[in-house]
Write the structure tokens for this entry.
Amino acid sequence: MSILIIYESKGGYTKECALTLEKYLAGKGRAVEVHAAGKENLAGYDRVVIGSAVYAGRVPARIRRFVNKNSKDLLNRPLSLFVCGTAEEFKDTYYEKNYPEQILNHADIREWFGGHIILEDHHGLKKMILSSILKGEKELHRERKDNIEPFAKFLLGS
Ligand SMILES: Cc1cc2nc3c(=O)[nH]c(=O)nc-3n(C[C@H](O)[C@H](O)[C@H](O)COP(=O)(O)O)c2cc1C
């Protein structure tokens, strides 16, 4: 079985999740960043996983473009999704707002790997906006990396 994990990560957390997933897939998975995924022949994989974080409610445009451009191939093989973020209560909305209905219906599992916001990693206006969201705290930790191993087991078992 060969599983292609396509991800985008601006700050590194989603990348860590994608690489941890790759590790749990024990030689059956390969993680590639979405900007390099155009070179992949999706037909050569038994399954595709797409993962990214949300920023102001949006999955990065590159991921959305990849999904739209490759929807035929994605609908032709098992597909799974994961999203990273700090507001788990909105996860269903994030999927619905960012992925076409056909893709969501086709995906056999959607998982949430959480995330974190560390103010020091940001600058300028973005830092000011994040600072008001964090209400005086310097960091917000909502990691759910514990969801990665069961997700991998599902992919290997299905
Ligand atoms: C500018 C910005 C906006 C964000 N907006 C959201 C959001 O709308 N919902 C959410 O759940 N998390 C939000 N987050 C949290 C990120 O999804 C979280 O920091 C994640 O770990 C980022 O992953 P990355 O390191 O791969 O970029 C936001 C983070 C940043 C920096």
